[in-house]
Amino acid sequence: MIRKKINILCVDDEQLILNALTALLRLRYNVITTTDAREAVEILKTTDVAVVISDQRMPEMLGSEFLKIAKEISPHTTRILLTGFSDLGAIISTVNESEVYRFLTKPWSNNEVLEIVRDAVEVSKALRENAVDIQPEKELFQDVVLNAEPTKNWEDSYIIYKSTVSSSEFDITQETPESVKVLIARNSEEVLQLLSKYPVKLIITYSPFSSGDDIELLKYLKRELPELLSIGLVRHTDYQDIITLINEAKLYRYVVMPSKPGQVAHFINSAIVMFHKFSQSPNLLKHQQVQEKTPIKESLLGLLGGMKRFFKFS
After folding, report:
1. What is the pTM of this model?
2. Any idea what the Cα angle at residue 251 is, between residues 246 and 254, rounded to 5°?
3. Max CA distance (Å), the chain
4. Are residues 90 and 157 in the same domain?
5. Are residues 243 and 183 in the same domain?
6. Contact at 8 Å (CB) between 268 and 176?
7. Average of pLDDT values for 196-222?
8. What angle do CA 232, 234, 237 make, to 5 degrees?
9. CA-CA distance, 78 to 71, in Å (whole number)?
10. Which residues contact 82 (CB under 8 A, 6 or more apart)?
11. Cα dist from 164 to 8, 204, 264, whole Å
12. Cα–Cα distances in Å, from 216 out to 8, 47, 99, 172, 219?
């Protein structure tokens, strides 16, 4: 019996790019291509697609806009953004609104594309098996705590806040419900010590600029504790840092400060709700897997202590 090939949708206004992706993927998958993002939307409405690969810079619709629509139409389709430029706003949008699984940069490595698509197909299967739809983020953030999930999601919820910013400038406790316990850490070592003592669900980092130490810490934690979610807050950022944080640390949300009113609170609520979904459906953790492209700093290795005892989903 011939097994039906899984559908992969590729969207790019450059036909040469589509031809290259088709040549690379067609032996393993049924590759559907289009140069029109609006046509791609219609394809998703009528076709079972496991993975969509979209270029960012397209004339009719940006890739970030298309992937946001794709998430709403087909939440079990894993989304990959193909980008060759540094549009920070679009990249951040794909993190927060379309929950992009991976970024691919041009020029790409064929082996890397095959590996990412293979993993993305497994993620799509896991999402479909668990029938969990991740709801789109709301356009407005006011009253987010009042509209939060049931109170049980907040019980015994610990978050770690690691920041080099004064509390008078940004008070994290103003963004969290009273039942959430905020633990303050000044450096990576203190983060790991707190993780060994408390059942933490979320880590939030805040630095004026993208911090190499924060990136290394989040990469390390995601490899060791895929259940742990992270939110990055910065004043100034770089597109390559965001790509690294998604591909190698699976950052949950990214915020350029100062934020919109209620935005950080909304993302915290969303993260804790997602943590509880992991406990109910461990297969969803496949979406949290990362690329182990670069080594972890030796200073972080061996400091886990007993923190893994709090994480038993996988």
Report:
1. 0.85
2. 100
3. 66
4. no
5. yes
6. yes
7. 90
8. 105
9. 8
10. 12, 17, 53, 54, 55, 56, 63, 104, 105, 106, 108
11. 43, 12, 17
12. 32, 39, 21, 22, 5
Residue 24, both tokens? 């690379």
pLDDT at 89: 77
Residue 162: partners with Cβ closer than 8 Å, 6 or more residues away: 184, 185, 186, 187, 188, 190, 191, 203, 204, 205, 206, 214, 217
Which token pair is 124?
A: 């799509």
Q: Which residue has the tokens 């197909």?
A: 121
On average, the pLDDT of the chain sits at 84
Least confident of 184-188, 212-216, 291-295, 304-308: 304-308
- Tens-digit pLDDT profile for residues 167-185: 888 999 999 988 899 999 9
Strand 181-185 and strand 200-209: the pairing is unpaired
Could you give the angle at which helices 37-46 and 63-73 cross, rounded to 10 degrees? 10
% of the chain beyond a pLDDT of 90: 52
Tell me the per-residue pLDDT of 219-250, one tens digit each, with 9 for 90 and over. 989 988 899 999 999 998 888 888 899 999 99
Query: Please, which pLDDT band fits residue 4 given cuts at 50, 70 and 90?
Result: confident
Helix (H, G, I), strand (E, B) or coil at 256: strand
Residue 187 token pair: 């450096």
Domain, as residue range, for 163: 151-310
Does residue 77 lie within any of the structural domains?
Answer: yes
Q: How far apart are CA 155 and CA 67, in angstroms?
A: 33
Name the nearest CA neighbour of 52 among 135, 173, 73, 209. Answer: 73
Helix, strand, coil shares, percent, the chain, to 5: 40, 20, 40
User: For residue 41, which of 71, 21, 15 has the smallest C-alpha distance?
Assistant: 71
pLDDT for 131 equals 61
Residues 172 and 226 occupy one common structural domain: yes
Q: Is residue 289 part of a domain?
A: yes
